[in-house]
Amino acid sequence: MAQFGPDKRPYIVAEMSGNHNGSLDRALALVDAAADAGADAIKIQTYTADTLTLDVKHPRFQLSQGHELWGGEYLYQLYERAHTPWDWHQPIFDRARERGITPFSSPFDPTAIDLLEKLDAPMYKIASSEITDLPLIRLAAATGKPVIISTGMASVKEIAAAVEAAQGAGASEVTVLSCTASYPAPPAETNLRRIPVLAQMLELPIGLSDHTLGIGVPVAAVAFGACLIEKHVTLDRADGGVDSAFSLNPAELKLLREESERAWQALGTTHIGPTEHEKEGLRFRRSLYVVTDVKAGDTVTPENVRSIRPTGGLEPDAISAVLGRTFTTDAAKGTPLTWDLI
């Protein structure tokens, strides 16, 4: 299982969610698309409408009318539409392993963990809304596998309690994801500056579960230390789907893979000064050169001495000290000006 951390390139998780649109073939095509784009893992969600909520037509079970994507929809009907049927899990896991990427899931109740254990899921993701379900976190951690905890909406106290529950129950690793749990999420509310704060507070690897549009936010997150990026994916936003509006298409996922790694490589070190690949450039800094043929006894003037590339002569700032002096020897055009010539 991959370790997440600042010494490794960002780990890219493609979240399928409900973008299979009720089709197993589409779900498998999403696995293939994620693999082709270079994602490290494909994640699904393991729940049914009945394990998440009740089929009750009451306002407390209904999303606000003003919700950008699911306004007025009842939770039960939304989850019925979005869930991944449990008998699809095996073929999805099999396809991912055939394609060389890691399949895993977010469990939402104990029966989901039972199913995922039978599939030998290599790790568990705790969704933001489940961060306060400490018994669920402990159950996932008790498998001894890595646990990834998303922190959308959570307070510092809630995050600390979830991490303590996972570590105390035996999780082999814990990774925490900064997250803004709105769909789509406004970039201005993503607060990437909290990533190093979480890292310092928890002394754990920190990633980003991102629901903004595009790849700008997750690439920027890498500069703040994010070691794992989770993004929802779809085959084509035009096809619709519960999460398609803020999901990446395969070409964008591939670009995220490439640009997040480029951003990570660019972090480099705190070294200030020429790098190995800049050494050739040092040769072509400016210096003072004889720019016309001169004879001994000629006066140094702006017409016969100038600052040009490459190096080899006196520093450009020496021009005021050499103008008006006399050449002590003949010098051809292209000769570096040195003190022994004047």
From TrEMBL:
Q: What is this protein called?
A: Pseudaminic acid synthase
Q: Does the keyword section mention Iron?
A: no
Q: Where is the signal peptide?
A: none
The UniProt keywords, alphabetically, are: Transferase
Which EC number applies? 2.5.1.97
Gene that encodes it: pseI
Show the GO MF annotations. transferase activity
Q: Which residues does UniProt call coiled coil?
A: none
Cite the InterPro entries for this sequence: AFP_Neu5c_C_sf, Aldolase_TIM, PseI-like, PseI/NeuA/B-like_N, Pseudaminic_synth_PseI, SAF, SAF_AFP_Neu5Ac, SAF_PseI/NeuA/NeuB
Q: Where is the AFP-like domain?
A: 287-342
- SMART domains documented for this protein: SAF
